[in-house]
Amino acid sequence: MISDLSLRWILTLVFAASAVFCLYRCVYRPRFTGRVSEGLHALMCAGMVTMAWPATMSFARTPQIVLFTAAAVWFAVTARGHGWFAAAHHTLMMAAMAWMVFAMPLAMAGMTMTAPMTGPEHAGMDMGSGMTMTGHAPVPVAAVAVALTVLFLVAGLVWLARAIDRARGEQRPGKHTWGLAMEGAMSLGMAVMTVALV
């Protein structure tokens, strides 16, 4: 799905660090709902790591779709106390995860595998397995992917702006500031993953 090996590793590190941070917050959340939410975020980050690597893209698709659909419902019901923006963003992230797992085969169906060749005239998506993937996803899949990319890009910038504004009033960034930055990083990472489906 992600053609560039270095980008795969960057996304892997971003989502792995986010998962660790979510698990850290999960331990220290005083309320049960907060712990469940952080645990779901950690699972989402793990899912994003698997999506970045072609060898694991088809891993346990149906359980993932069920899990992330249920997670979207969970955030739609429980996250309202954190403000409409956070509630909408978390719900959208989980729904997008379920959609990406579902849409991945549809996106790949519009592409073809070819043997690796050298030279700019044979540029394509290096899948890291000696093959190259070329072509485009079906129009409906691409349209949804573009819409999600725009939404996650905007949301990521909003989260990062909030983190920067809060950090200005702190001598040392606290957990809340790091949490805002983590939200921004996850959203921008989601934008990269969704644009790869176009």
From TrEMBL:
Pfam family, one: DUF5134
Protein name: DUF5134 domain-containing protein
InterPro entries (alphabetical): DUF5134
Domain of life: Bacteria
Residues passing through the membrane, by range: 6-27, 39-59, 65-85, 97-117, 137-160
Keywords: Membrane, Transmembrane, Transmembrane helix
Taxonomic source organism: Amycolatopsis ultiminotia
